[in-house]
Amino acid sequence: MNVREKPLPAAPESKTLTLADDALGQVSTATDCATTPCPTAPDGELRIGPAGGHQWATRFKADLSGLPKGARVTSATLSLTRSDCAADCTAQQPGVYELSSAWTPAESGGALLDAAGTDDYVSGTPLPDLDLGPLVQSWTERGENQGFALTVPADEHGAAYRSLTASDANTRPRLTIRYLPPTTPGAVTDVVTVPGDSGLLATWNPPLDPGVAGELRYAVQVEKTDGTVVAEQETGTPRAVFTKLDNTVPYRVSVRVRNAVGEGPVSRSASAQGAAVRGGTALYRDIVQEYLAARGKILTGGDLSSPDAAADAPHGAVFAALLGAQEPNLVDNRQALADTGQSYAGASVEMTDVLVGKGATADQVVVRATVTQSMTLHGDGGDEPTKGSALKRYTFGLTGDTAVMDGEADDFDAGQTLSATAAAQSQVETTSATDPESPDDTSDDPGSIELGENGFPDETPPAPATKATVTALGARSVSGHGTANWAYNHTDIGWEYSQDCTNFVSKALYHGGGMKFRWGGRKTDGAWWQQYYLFGSVKNKSYTWSGADNLRRHFSGHRPSSRVSKTYNAQLGDIVFFKWKKERRYNHAAVVTSKVQGHLGLSQHGIKNHTTLDDVLARYRGTSNPIQRVLIIRPRSTK
To answer: 0.70 exceeded by the pTM?
Structure first.
């Protein structure tokens, strides 16, 4: 991937919103009181920790109506003034707990602890150094704000602070929020076109300044060099395919990005002109379709071999060698499932956004397409559909009038060039295998699912059930059903990274499951958050948000969770981690979104967006790098 040096954008003007008095609701309550009425703090005072024979917590709730919709919060600091000491006060380091449910001062202090749970946003950080920015941003993104509570353990020193009724207004609590007001977006960069036969592919980089916290849409137009628009479309991803163009005319592409505020400036590509391919575009499209269908026949066709599958296709000779090279893995995949009483059925393939064009040389043809493959995994317990869409590229070598399909690859970054700044943000940054801060293996994480010699879970399932069953989730801080529903319904959202699996899982936990942020250093395993930075133009993410092994370690030592030792005990919303034999750590994650007779259905950003655990294991079972370990983790609360 090419990298171009680009200057950083100028820092936009940020705004400050200071919340005080009635805009920052606050109340102290004795948490060792299980019933009402409970003791109240003295007038004008807030208490945190032990004082006056009781244990105290203070709840704050910010009124964010003054924060513009779409604002990007860059920081938020809470200022409190001590009332129990005048000078040289030791800064308190309270735990910060985001409330998961509503609480009112009419309820008990024990009810406040129940609403706050045990999942702290941060602890051990002095109040003046505490950044609540990600917490405030999460309230605006999820549309839910129950406030947060501050407390310390009973064996630590308590402290008293001025409240909103203090006579000196300068000593009252304040929440100072720094944010970028919503604006129209900046321009997209690096618009590149890849010409084809009667069409073109356009790619670009999102704007460095999106203008708002929210979705971006792109208005894409194909123009003649005189500016005449001949085709247009709107998309949410930085990629568009156009067909039915004239090979005798040069075209350029213009892209304008839109957000909730308005449109950004237009960006244009250089002009490009298509050229006819030998034999016509329909021929190569048909061959790819036949090839994909033949591959599906091997997986679903009992003892069908690649020569038989190729012989059934009108152009089978073109892809026979490529299909033959894949046959051992396909057959092993099929047989591995057969050994467990399962089989593939109903394979189908759909190709969309197809572009056929010349390759790097005159003797090469390239077919680019979005390929959606669907099939059903059949077993005694029922049928489980699997489905996945991917950007694919197929290459053909030409010798005279003879064509041979000689390659298949992902087309994720076709034609894309990145500025230095954009490139740094489009990679999954995680602790690497050589990073001294990271363990060299996964020996610190026992409890993985035991795989037998056949590469599948080595366990005896319980008595068969007639329908999908899910154990009740009980009290937990992360909604398993919410995580599963979000993951299942959002697999088509755009990929932010070339390896987007953990970013997708984190979004499901955050948006669907309601998992709370944990503040800390970006590289530390205890943190889990996303926040705007680079002048508020880029949403930064902790390593645990984007890297599979980092998220696995986050659950192992820093987040309440439990291990699922048998697949038939898994529940919807559990997170599945995979470690391959040749990898030093877990490097893939998915969400459990269905369960039939102990067989787990998964949703993910991967080769197949909707798949099953057995399907994933079978795919790699016969390769030189099979899946070696599977770990299933259930995020939960300890209360």
So the answer is: yes
